[in-house]
Write a structure and sequence with these properties.
The N and C termini lie far apart (about 60 Å). The strands form 6 sheets. The protein has a 6-stranded mixed beta sheet, with helices on both faces. A 4-stranded mixed beta sheet has the order 11-10-9-19, covered by helices on one side. The chain contains 11 helices and 19 strands. A hairpin with a 2-residue loop joins β6 and β7. By secondary structure, the protein is an alpha/beta fold.
């Protein structure tokens, strides 16, 4: 197992080496109960850094980073451990690319929350990595976002901690980096001078338990889209098992408080995928089911193709086309909404040569994305595709019990069909 220390870095660099020392030397911690933990030697020290250096101690941020890097190396050399990879990861404004000096505004906090969430997710995707998140240092909101990110994606092998120094006044002593430093220094603490090698200077590591939510994000969402607030929204969406309501009378999809009105043509497509999912049409399922007798609820894209295949068999009357015809024949407010262009497009496509649904699926995706801004909820709602042994398969990821079909006729929900010879 490879260990990673993840922490924020601002004006107090010493919390990094103090935490590393405590991880390496549990037998020297203040609380006897904490001495039972096993030593941890991180191979990577990843620091999400603001662009602030205490002017009383450093001439620049570069000077701060250089001293901290040197001290981390010195600590590892003193104890005979391999020097870790040290990543000082500057927190950048995503619009300007300028490093943030501090986390003070709402926007600053959002930027930090998103970045720490992305980093934790990246490490948590590697089963051979164990994350140690330090909550020491930084502002209280930063620690809160650290905690959230670990709750989202942290695993059993991951942990969080806070480091404490005794006497507390030593926390303001810039010369103190860890107990038993080589070349002991006298540190001014109030009116007293205390040696860094004195038994009075002590460190403790407080373990912070956290709930493992084991958040499973939908596939296909890029790492840069890992927005902390959107993940919170998605967690609530999944926790409440919110349903997608598909109203055939209004040509509307409702997700939570959001209504998405579709054109009759795009609605017919979406309704078809929903009906297949709810009725568990056999033969094809989501990617984790694949194709076969135990798979259901999805469609073969080739079911939309019409023409004569090499074996001479017609595809003009597949179940998908039969239900789609009924949906396109739907009437609302006395007006017929049949869109012959869609059926002409599908029936004019030759098997295996074109995707007759591509244009309409693109329009459907745009309409839904214009209303639902969460990329995670989008991925649950939008039809997805994957390539199986028999070509491209398409359907909805959301479980059938979370789909509610409203105002459909019996004929539209009747999936019985007969292939023409």
């Amino acid at each position: 197992m490879e260990y990673v220390l993840l922490a924020s870095l601002g004006g107090s660099s010493q919390v990094i080496t103090e935490t590393l020392w405590a991880l390496m030397n549990p037998e020297k911690l203040i609380d006897p109960a904490h001495r039972k933990r096993s030593p941890v030697v991180p191979a990577t020290v990843h620091l999400i850094s603001t662009d602030y250096a205490n002017p009383r101690h450093y001439s620049s941020v570069q000077a701060r980073d250089a001293e901290l890097t040197a001290k981390v190396r010195e600590l590892f050399v003193q104890y005979g451990y391999p020097i870790p990879e040290i990543k000082i990861d500057p927190l950048l404004d995503p619009d300007s690319g300028v490093p943030l000096e501090d986390i003070r505004t709402q926007r600053d906090n959002v930027i930090y929350a998103n970045r720490v969430t992305q980093v934790v997710k990246e490490y948590a995707d590697s089963p051979n990595i164990s994350i140690h998140m330090s909550l020491a240092g930084g502002r209280k909101t930063m620690s809160s976002y650290d905690h959230s990110a670990m709750m989202f994606f942290g695993r059993v092998q991951d942990e969080m901690s806070h480091v404490l120094i005794e006497p507390a006044s030593m926390e303001r002593a810039p010369q103190f980096w860890w107990p038993d430093q080589e070349d002991p220094l006298l540190v001014q603490v109030g009116e007293d001078e205390i040696s860094t090698s004195s038994p009075i200077a002590r460190v403790d590591l407080i373990n912070v338990p956290f709930v493992h939510l084991d958040v499973r994000l939908p596939k296909g969402v890029p790492p840069e889209a890992l927005d902390h607030d959107k993940i919170v929204e998605f967690v609530e969406f999944e926790r409440n098992q919110e349903a997608i309501i598909i109203d055939a009378e209004r040509f509307c999809i409702t997700v939570g408080a959001t209504e998405v009105f579709l054109t009759p043509q795009q609605f017919a497509f979406f309704a078809l995928f929903a009906i297949a999912r709810v009725q568990a049409w056999p033969g094809v399922g989501p990617s984790d089911e694949g194709e076969g007798h135990n798979a259901s609820g999805w469609l073969h894209l080739r079911d939309f193709s019409h023409g004569v295949e090499r074996d001479g068999k017609s595809r003009q009357n597949t179940r998908s086309l039969a239900v789609l015809r009924r949906l396109l024949d739907r009437k609302s407010d006395g007006a017929q909404h049949r869109d012959n262009n869609l059926m002409d497009q599908i029936l004019g496509a030759c098997v295996g040569e074109t995707d007759p649904t591509e244009s309409d699926r693109s329009k459907l995706r745009r309409q839904i994305k214009n209303k639902i801004d969460s990329p995670f909820i989008q991925s649950v709602v939008l039809p997805q595709t994957y390539t199986g042994p028999n070509g491209v398969n398409i359907g909805l990821e959301i479980p059938a019990h979370r789909i509610k079909l409203m105002n459909f006729s019996d004929a539209e929900l009747n999936s019985d069909y007969r292939e023409k010879p």
